[in-house]
């Protein structure tokens, strides 16, 4: 028997740092990935998909947003989709789950698990699902505790599904919301405990696993995780499950810290490095660059052309923190002519930069913009 384990779809999520076009693409892909999960289940021969909470980003989505994931799952009538609430979409009296039931919007192949009690998952394999259901955003009690004594038939394959934080996993000494005992699978005789809340794949132990979000949703420098689903194969109620991860995400998020630029070669290398993430599909890249260094006048213009303009237009999103400073000297003033108001203004700004003090950084930025604007004027003049 096989299942697909996924979580944290967060349909309707917004990203404040992207423009409208990129936001629309990111939100659409959080729906499109449902189809890829369904295709994965079919290809792997998995009749069941477990979604371990946070199907929705908010408790009050619009009616359109509410129904969209249901319609994507409806397309896979041969797959049973099992959903539980998470902390973003807890089962509150007027929340998303009540609305879905009231509006008769749940397809026959989608099972909403809204009570903490064993449910038969697959009669052929004597498999039972033990869901832990959040009825508020945060609780200090372990909702998986009931699983220890939850009755199932003799020899049943017991599969738990929950949304929360495993106690003792990187958060020792902290008070935790939605805690889950790290040894719950062993205590409750679970063949597998499918978890949601952590957005990257994490195998806590042989039977306790976070699947992570199927579409990456944040920047990271060391492999922030996400963009995957887990296929779980069972050989019996006591045999360790066999896991395999499968990429489902379309977008790649990368953060580059402490990028120091001092020459045109550095600029070209940075552009190449970012594009190399997905050379044939740069429009699937979201990059966050923390940039510093000092560049001469011509190299600064090159930076603006290649990075701030060309690369930004190629990517789904380019987020820039910081910027290279202008390394300009008296000799560079000749670029502005031998006299005139523009050269006089530049000379005054350069003098202020060299003098230091509180206004030096403002003068530096003004001088930088002056050189760049002058360059634009020269290039635009026939």
TrEMBL record:
Nuclease listed as a keyword: yes
Taxonomic superkingdom: Bacteria
Residue intervals of the Calcineurin-like phosphoesterase domain: 1-115
Pfam families in alphabetical order: Metallophos
GO molecular function per UniProt: exonuclease activity
UniProt xrefs under InterPro entries: Calcineurin-like_PHP, DNA_Repair-Maintenance_Comp, Metallo-depent_PP-like, Mre11_N, UCP033093_metalloPase
Keywords: Exonuclease, Hydrolase, Nuclease
Keyword check for Acyltransferase: no
Database matches in Gene3D superfamilies: 3.60.21.10
Protein name: DNA repair exonuclease
Organism field: Acetobacter fabarum
């Amino acid at each position: 028997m096989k299942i697909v384990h996924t979580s944290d779809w967060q349909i309707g999520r917004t990203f404040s740092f992207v423009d409208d076009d990129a936001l629309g693409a990111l939100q659409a892909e959080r729906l499109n990935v449902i189809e890829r999960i369904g295709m994965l289940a079919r290809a792997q021969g998995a009749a069941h998909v477990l979604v371990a909470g946070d199907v929705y980003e908010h408790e009050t989505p619009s009616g359109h947003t509410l129904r969209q994931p249901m319609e994507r799952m409806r397309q896979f009538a041969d797959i049973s989709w099992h959903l539980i609430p998470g902390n973003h979409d807890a089962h509150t009296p007027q929340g998303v789950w009540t609305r879905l039931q009231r509006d008769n919007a749940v397809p026959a192949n989608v099972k909403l698990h809204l009570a903490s009690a064993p449910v038969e998952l697959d009669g052929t394999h004597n498999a039972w699902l033990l869901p832990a259901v959040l009825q508020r955003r945060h609780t200090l009690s372990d909702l998986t505790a009931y699983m220890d004594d939850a009755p199932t038939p003799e020899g049943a394959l017991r599969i738990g599904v929950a949304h929360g934080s495993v106690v003792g996993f990187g958060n020792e000494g902290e008070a935790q919301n939605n805690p889950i005992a790290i040894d719950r699978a062993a205590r409750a005789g679970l063949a597998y405990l499918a978890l949601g809340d952590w957005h990257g794949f994490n195998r806590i132990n042989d039977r306790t696993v976070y699947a992570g979000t199927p579409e990456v949703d944040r920047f990271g420098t060391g492999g922030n995780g996400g963009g995957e689903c887990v296929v779980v194969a069972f050989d019996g109620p006591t045999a360790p499950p066999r896991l395999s991860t499968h990429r489902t995400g379309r977008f790649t998020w990368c953060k580059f810290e402490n990028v120091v630029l001092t020459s045109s070669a550095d600029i070209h290398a940075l552009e190449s490095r970012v594009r190399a993430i997905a050379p044939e599909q740069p429009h699937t890249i979201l990059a966050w660059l923390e940039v510093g260094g000092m560049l001469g006048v011509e190299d600064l213009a090159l930076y603006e052309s290649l990075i701030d303009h060309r690369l930004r237009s190629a990517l789904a999103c380019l987020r820039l923190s910081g910027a290279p400073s202008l390394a300009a000297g008296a000799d560079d003033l000749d670029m502005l002519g031998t006299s005139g108001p523009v050269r006089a203004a530049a000379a005054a700004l350069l003098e202020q930069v060299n003098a230091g003090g509180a206004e030096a950084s403002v003068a530096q930025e003004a001088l930088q913009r002056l050189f760049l604007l002058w360059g634009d004027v020269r290039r635009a003049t026939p």
